[in-house]
């Protein structure tokens, strides 16, 4: 049986005092439910996805809801006139970091699903 660690993003970032995802700073593609795209965008913007943004590279996150979300790089945002400081973002994630699978629940809660490393009994 696979085990996952579920972290509600709103709770994580709210506890750290962080803000929300920069509006229009990401794209949605391969959406199996285009009728829900506005809802997905709204929920992603409510959460703070900035920890998944890199300085110079776009980051593609897979959502179990049937779409991908590309977080545009901080440099791309800055070049396009967004009020961001690319120096506040890392060039890459730590070597032992794996991007989570994401999920938006019906109530709007956004979860990051991390696969734990090592064996669990």
Largest sheet: 3 strands, antiparallel
Report, as a whole number of angstroms, the end-to-end distance.
10 Å
Radius of gyration: 15 Å
Outline type: globular
- Share of helix, binned: 10-25%
Order of helices and strands: EHEHEEHEE
Strand order in the largest sheet? 1-6-5
* Count of DSSP strands: 6
Unreliably modeled segments: 9-18
Strand content: 15-25%
Contiguous helical run count: 3
Total separate domains: 1
Q: Structural class, from secondary structure content?
A: alpha+beta
Mean of the pLDDT scores? 86
Short description:
Helices cover 20% and strands 22% of the residues. It is of the alpha+beta class. It is globular, with a radius of gyration of 15 Å.
Descriptive overview:
With 121 residues, the chain is α+β, with helices and mostly antiparallel strands. It has one domain. The chain contains three helices and six strands; from the N terminus they run βαβαββαββ. It has a three-stranded antiparallel β-sheet. A three-stranded antiparallel β-sheet has the order 2-4-3, with no helix packed on it. Strand 5 and strand 6 form a beta hairpin. The longest helix has 10 residues. The radius of gyration is 15 Å and the shape is globular.
